[in-house]
């Protein structure tokens, strides 16, 4: 309410409001009043440079199979996948993370096919680097696509054996680097794997190949559609609780991450993403390394399903979730939305 006051001998109307007195004349909405000022003070921005696109590759040629649980995502043969990578590169996406659907008759208890220099993953790496040499390839060495039991490591007498698995993943990492992989991103969560892979890569002359540690991979229920995509869902014997981190344990996750830093990780990854934004923030604050989150298949599927039912604005939520990763300290995000987001950013 306005009230009269005297200024320089003149009576003027004082328009100070009770709200001004309560806030000490500090109003947060001043910086929100118009689009131009909101843009000027925006703290975090999402760009195409923040995007890493995970894709699924399968055997055969001319294949692009839609995945029912992940609308808009296809499982592609190498030729089709290379075409898709070309499109991603044209959109400015800096890196791809491929995951293979290995033929069932090539899977065995030790995942031995991962050590075949001509396996599906290594063929994809070579063909992609030949066709799109300037895009980054971030490859996994976990054994789950290659094992007959669906675990990320070698299973013996009901136990995932750590050290023998590490021997396998080191050899696989060198083979993938030989094929042209730029960054090895080991997701199997074995103890000592980062240091062992670093030593193995360096011994093979791959000092320039980086390691993106799955520093904190949680034993999560959000992986379901991914396991269908690589056909491990029906194979899994038991669970992965003896090597993935419990969702209840933040301090343990930080200890895991610290060990990976000591062992020589160049970058860190948190998986899944949105349920673990606190871990993203803690890891970035603690170590200062480039930090990434994986917006996993279950997160993607939830957004897609809700959008298809008209319950949310799918595009808006897609962009909001990715921006939230940036706010939580992430330098980038692995997301199945990458191509859609790159197109959208290119139109704005």
From TrEMBL:
Keywords: Heme biosynthesis, Lyase, Porphyrin biosynthesis. It comes from the Bacteria. Gene3D superfamilies: Aldolase class I. Pathway: Porphyrin-containing compound metabolism; protoporphyrin-IX biosynthesis; coproporphyrinogen-III from 5-aminolevulinate: step 1/4. GO terms for biological process: protoporphyrinogen IX biosynthetic process. InterPro entries: ALAD, ALAD_AS, Aldolase_TIM. SMART domains: ALAD. The active site is at 217 (schiff-base intermediate with substrate), 271 (schiff-base intermediate with substrate). One of its GO terms (molecular function) is zinc ion binding. Coiled coil: none annotated. Its EC number is 4.2.1.24. NCBIfam families: PRK09283.1. Belongs to the ALAD family. This is Delta-aminolevulinic acid dehydratase. It comes from Aliirhizobium smilacinae. The lineage of its organism: Bacteria, Pseudomonadati, Pseudomonadota, Alphaproteobacteria, Hyphomicrobiales.
């Amino acid at each position: 309410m306005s009230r009269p006051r005297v200024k320089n001998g003149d009576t003027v109307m004082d328009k100070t409001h009770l709200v001004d007195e309560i806030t000490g004349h500090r109003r947060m909405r001043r910086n929100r009043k118009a689009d131009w000022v909101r843009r000027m003070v925006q703290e975090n921005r999402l760009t195409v440079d923040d995007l890493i696109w995970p894709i699924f590759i399968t055997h055969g040629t001319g294949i692009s199979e839609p995945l029912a649980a992940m609308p808009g995502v296809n499982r592609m043969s190498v030729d089709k996948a290379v075409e898709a990578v070309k499109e991603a590169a044209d959109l400015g996406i800096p890196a791809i993370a491929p995951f293979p659907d290995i033929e069932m008759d090539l899977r065995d208890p030790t995942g031995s096919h991962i050590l075949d220099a001509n396996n599906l993953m290594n063929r994809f790496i070579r063909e992609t680097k030949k066709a799109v040499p300037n895009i980054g390839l971030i490859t996994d060495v976990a054994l789950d696509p290659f094992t007959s039991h669906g675990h990320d490591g070698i299973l013996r007498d009901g136990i995932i054996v750590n050290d023998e698995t590490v021997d396998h993943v080191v050899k696989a990492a060198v083979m993938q680097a030989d094929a042209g992989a730029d960054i090895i991103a080991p997701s199997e969560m074995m103890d000592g794997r980062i240091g062992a892979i670093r030593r193995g890569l360096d011994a093979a002359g791959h000092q320039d190949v980086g390691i993106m540690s799955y520093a904190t991979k949680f034993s999560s229920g959000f992986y379901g559609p991914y396991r269908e995509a690589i056909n491990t869902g029906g194979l899994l014997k038991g669970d992965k609780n003896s090597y993935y981190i419990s969702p209840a344990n933040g301090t343990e996750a930080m200890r895991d991450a610290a060990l990976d830093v000591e062992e020589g990780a160049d970058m860190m990854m948190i998986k899944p993403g949105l349920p673990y934004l606190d871990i993203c923030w803690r890891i970035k604050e603690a170590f200062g390394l480039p930090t990434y989150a994986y917006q996993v298949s279950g997160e993607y599927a939830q957004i897609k399903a809700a959008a298809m039912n008209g319950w949310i604005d799918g595009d808006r939520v897609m962009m909001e979730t990715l921006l939230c990763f940036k706010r939580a300290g992430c330098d980038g995000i692995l997301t199945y939305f990458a191509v859609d987001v790159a197109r959208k950013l290119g139109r704005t």
